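Comment thread on ticket #2218

A.B. wrote:
> Attaching the input chain for the structure job we discussed in standup.
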Amino acid sequence: MLSASPVLERLKEEGYKLTTPRRRIAEVLESRDTGHFRIEELYDLVNQDGFLVGLATIYRTVRLLEDLSLLTKIDLGDGQDRYELMISPHHHHHLLCNQCKKVMEVQGDFLDELEERISAMYSFDIEGHDVIFYGTCSSCKNRMENNE
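C.D. wrote:
> Ran it. Output below, let me know if you need it in another format.
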């Protein structure tokens, strides 16, 4: 019986083999508190606890999951490619700390009303949007205040 993993279920539906590296990558992706990761971070997390999955396999799997619309690359304007698991239709926005580069999610889509107004005003079918707020997180702010 297949686990309740949306990633593995989708791979199986599309006819892909559920290899041990793919299973491990899916497990790590689905267990993350935040879905914003760089390839190097995913590599480190996948290879904890004695696993050995090569970097090329990580890249190929990420590309496959992107092709299946299970992962999306997010550009936060800081030169770092990050990826996000997209197994839920929930749209959210991001906060990026200019100091430590931590990425946080803003829960709730506050732009629904604005989207509707823009769509009506310009007779434009909006398919999505990206919003990134840049600033300083509370940890960095506290660290800076304590160093004054």
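A.B. wrote:
> Thanks. Noting for the ticket: Residues 78 and 101 are 8 Å apart (CA to CA).
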